[in-house]
Amino acid sequence: MHFRLSIMVWRVLIGAFPVREKLVFIPDKSCLLCNAKVESSFHLFWECPLEKALRFSGPFLVVPHDLSDLDLINIVLKLHEGLSQDESWKLFTFIGCLFTSIWETRNSLLFRNIKPDILQLRKMIMLRYQMFVSIRATVDNQAVSGTTIFHGREVIPSSANVFCVTDASWIGGVASLVVGKSDRNTAFREWFTKKCKVDSTMEAEILAILWTLKIYCDAGLPSIIIASDALLVVHALQSKHYPPCWKARPFVAEI
Ligand SMILES: [Zn+2]
Questions:
Q1: In a domain, 186, yes or no
Q2: Could you list the residue range(s) of the whole structural domain that residue 219 is in?
Q3: Are 179 and 166 contacting, i.e. CB atoms less than 8 angstroms apart?
Q4: Pfam family of this protein, just one (predicted)?
């Protein structure tokens, strides 16, 4: 699965999104999309009628098992059972696209008062899904032909054999870190996650980068590429300045 979607699914599974159930300062906990009593992660990404309608109208039979009484992590594990690698890639790419669209739709309604149009949404999810399918085909072709792979506007130097993505979420003093690693020669992918105590999201993002460096530099790799969506941190590191978070200074110095 594309790293962007893997991280989206991971964030949903660990409950990293600020749904209303978690926001103590918001008295109205109802789901914006269906007015259900509580907007929890489980409701928004699995139980909400809008999400269900989009899931059931998709190209995959997403509920082949008895999933009652399971949490989202175990539902995903159950869905994975019995699928070939290719089937699993397609199913989870679709689920990643679905989760992304649900979160965007919820935020468009909340912040811009844009009401969801289910037909448009379904079209957008399938377009997004097709885009990831075509990216996969392009990367496979380039891997065979040995040409340089383009990721967005950046060109990854061919000398870097290991490409990593990092992400972090932070809730109530505890951060969840994730590192995804792709070996460009073998196409082998690994994921690492851990929890640690820090005081802010920025510290968590910096720790994720530092952890990536420790994992792979300690393994003796000559060079790696690390991608992070924490732009403030990335810009600070690129310009060799400290990001605006004094508590993170020892971590940045270590990087
Ligand atoms: Zn709902």
A1: yes
A2: 162-253
A3: yes
A4: zf-RVT
Task: State the distance from the centre of ligand 1 to the C-alpha of 32, rounded, in angstroms.
Answer: 6
Q: What is the pLDDT of residues 213-254, one digit of tens each?
A: 888 777 777 777 888 877 778 888 877 877 777 777 888 888
- Per-residue DSSP letters for 84-114? -HHHHHHHHHHHHHHHHHHHHHHHHHHHH-P
Output the pTM of the full model: 0.68
In terms of pLDDT, which residue wins out, 140 or 73? 73
Distance 196 CA to ligand 1 centre (A): 32
Measured in Å, residue 104 CA sits from the centre of ligand 1 at: 14
Cα-to-centroid distance, 33 and ligand 1 (Å): 5
Same domain, 246 and 126: no
In a domain, 128, yes or no: yes
Query: How remote is the CA of residue 107 from the centroid of ligand 1, in Å?
Result: 13
Tell me which of 115, 145, 175 is where a domain ends: 145
